[in-house]
Amino acid sequence: MKQKLVIIGNGMAPGRMLENLLEAAPDAYEVTIFNAEPRVNYDRIMLSPVLSGEKTFEEIVIHGDGWYIKHGITLYKGCKIKTIDRAAKTVTSDTGIVESYDKLVIATGSVPFIIPVPGNDMAGVLTYRDLDDVNAMMIAAKSRGNAVVIGGGLLGLEAAAGLAEQGMKVTVIHIMPTLMERQLDPAAGHLLKKAVEERGITVLNGANTKAILGSSRVEGVELADGTIVPADIIVMAVGIRPNAVLGKESGLEVKRGIVVDDQMRTSDPDVFALGECAEHRGMVYGLVAPLYEMAGILAKTLAAEPAAYAGSVTATKLKVTGINLFSAGDFAEGEDREEIVLRDARQGIYKRLVLKNNRIVGAVLYGETSDGAWFFDMLKRSVDISEMRDTLIFGQSYQGGTPLDPTAAVAALPDDAEICGCNGICKGKITGAIEKLGLKNVDDVRSHTKASASCGSCTGLVEQLLKVKLGDAFNPTAIQPMCGCTELGHDDVRRLIVAKSIKSIPALMQELNWKTSCGCAKCRPALNYYLLATWPGDYVDDSQSRFINERVHANIQKDGTYSVVPRMWGGVTSAKELRAIADAVDKFAIPSVKCTGGQRIDLLGVKKDDLPAVWSDLNAAGMVSGHAYGKALRTVKTCVGTDWCRFGTQDSTGLGIKLEKFMWGAWTPAKVKMAVSGCPRNCAEATCKDVGVICVDSGYEIHFAGAAGLDIKGTEVLGHVKTEEEAIEVIAALVQLYREQGRYLERIYKWAKRVGSTSIKAAVLEDATKRKALYERFVFAQSFSQKDPWEERARGVAAHEFRPMANLTFKQAAE
Amino acid sequence: MSDTWIDIGGVDEIPQKGSRVVKTTSGDVAVFRTVNDEVFALRDRCPHKGGPLSQGIVHGTSVTCPLHNWVIGLDSGSAQGQDKGCTRRFPVKVEAGRIYLDVALALPRVA
């Protein structure tokens, strides 16, 4: 008989706890979660990149809907627990749901502190805590108005940077004389202030908020000295308090947070508290690493394994692109403490170590943070540093004579040194996975170990570990840049297009410091695609950045003539179409007519000047461009299905036509070929296509990631659906995800290998919300792309492409 | 020799980072316009396999051939990088927004 486990709260701590528990004791509990937020579990520490536009919400989801279904967990979204009845062992929600428990976990997190000044409840006063806050800020930022952030700590500065990135004029109001005074001394605070101000953010130090002004909504902030700062929104980021209300009301022992013992147990043996709402040995925590440690302990406790939490030493990083700041431990001054400080104001470098009994108890690094992990490791292990005291501040490279290069420094770390602070992943776990699983790059490490998968600031360390393990076989700088015009890789460029709202190729090259005046034949087509896919309807296609085939909508041949392939929906044609093709072949003396592998007819050897006239004739018979020349949907190959075949299980021809009519015209990173077979005999050869459908009696089996070209690879099964409508929705979502993630010229099978088929399945099949969103984005993009380019050119669009500029052959004849 | 310059059209008839073809009795000439509005003319044949350079992507003062991605310098007519080969250049000049091609070279006189 399974015990009933009820969890209040669905943040990162309970999410991690469940992962661990499912691993340790998968069948021990029937789990029910109540989440006051109306959504699944997501990576809260990545809200700043969402605010700055560098990531989307979908990218920071930890557990999608599919995960809960797979593990049989009941998740109530947008459902707040009002009362706990410890005698009856039940909880009751604001919507009236009553759930009984054997074990209860309270993980209600924390609440932002709102400063007690007049006007603090006015519309426009926001906090920075969850996705609703971020959405509210992003909507407000559209006005490009004034934002005031109250609080110059970690959270406040991240909020300020994000709002500035969104185009707002931001002022940070901080009560203390310098920024982040808990981590930085005044000199370092000054360096940070300068860096923040360089982003166009105004910083007011020593500023005390007196009142929030406005009538119906906020208009400004009045400071104690009478200064008035105009504001359209105000973000309060002055700190958080454990949210222990439920604990208190149900009579548990509560001080600052809900008091727990080393097993995370509250004063009631069947009730546990976890995360920011818990108080352990007088400490409350607001950073992710300790919360994950607690999660591990609680999972063991619930799985009846021995475990004890001994408290955490914390390290933190400021997640503002371009500002490097690392701090760990305790910086308070004391009689028994010494400091070593290195400061180079011109280079913007500041390092400070706080020592006690020859051991590091605190470390602050600003500007240059690569030794953070090394210092933090010695801090946690309480290493005696007296031997290296003279050179300690210069970092690991300067210990033991000749300076080590960064890779050697990482190689010298012990196996239990922590690399990823967010997920608590140590070096040994990463190197072990690289060896055992044959991991080749950072993405592999991310998906298998979770290292560098949260805030990403340890990516450099992970790269160095790969280098240590793989040697020259791993060379990120050799494979990453898009081309010789930039140091940036494809994924970085795509991310920055979104983050910086870049909407043209010249603007992109300016913003991202392209090394050439106008790119090259490698990057320009890629950039054109990325901009087109990111800003449908908004970006103006740059035809000069397209390869000739896509510029003139036909395939160039070795002799400079072109081939023309009209669309034949699902491979079905008619006497009328065939007659028109035959007439065009005669009229324009087209030398060769051939069937293609995708069930189409190819007219080869058409002179460029004739193209518009050929298209005009084909248009007249109802035929449009077959896009055989494009990085786009090429063909949907079909068999005759239930129309004719005695084995057919579904209308495969009909589905193929529907798919092709719905999806034609969509630009993709590389060509996309599809097929629909009416039964598992698979006459349409769907199992070697980018996307394939095998019809079966019970519905449709959707396949993807096949190849039959440079590489030969059978497809993988994406999943099974019951209806045509579902099949079309899943396929469109799949193609949209590929459009958003694929690198230019990367076919679906290579993309799937890079990002992992599991993540694709999770997004387009298991998670209905994500699928719907992808589908809708595809439909939106299609509203701009389904114009027949042949018809446009037959009408005279881009006429210069098809006519010589001048013909001097007549001139000579006249002479 | 000034009479051998022939007005072949306006600079604005060629798209920036683009090219148009001028037909002559001794073959096609590709006339290029760079991002900075410089104008160059080359024989419309790649030294590699004869691909039509006028159909390539123009970047900086180079063009990438559409057939096999050779990069040809517009000012020199020479293949860049590891590739070796050269295509013929033609003198062009721009005056008051009009492009003039020197036909003395483009149209060899028979007589």
Low-confidence stretches of chain B: none
Helix content of chain B: under 10%
Can you summarize the main beta sheet of chain A?
Answer: 5 strands, parallel
Mean pLDDT of chain A: 89
Q: Could you give the order of strands across the largest sheet of chain B?
A: 2-3-4-8
Number of domains of chain B: 1
Structural class, judged by helices and strands of chain B?
A: mainly beta
> Which parts of chain A are unreliable, with pLDDT below 50 for 5 consecutive residues or more?
none
Report, as a whole number of angstroms, the end-to-end distance of chain B: 17 Å
Task: Describe the oligomeric state of these chains in a short phrase.
Answer: heterodimer
How many E strands of chain B? 10
Structural class of chain A: alpha/beta
- CATH fold field value of chain B: Rieske Iron-sulfur Protein
Percentage of residues in DSSP E strands of chain B: 35-45%
Measured as a percent range, the helix fraction of chain A is 25-40%
Largest binding interface between chains: A-B, 28 and 39 residues
Q: Average pLDDT value of chain B?
A: 89
Named CATH topology of the largest domain in chain A: FAD/NAD(P)-binding domain
Rg of chain A over CA atoms, rounded to whole Å, is 31 Å
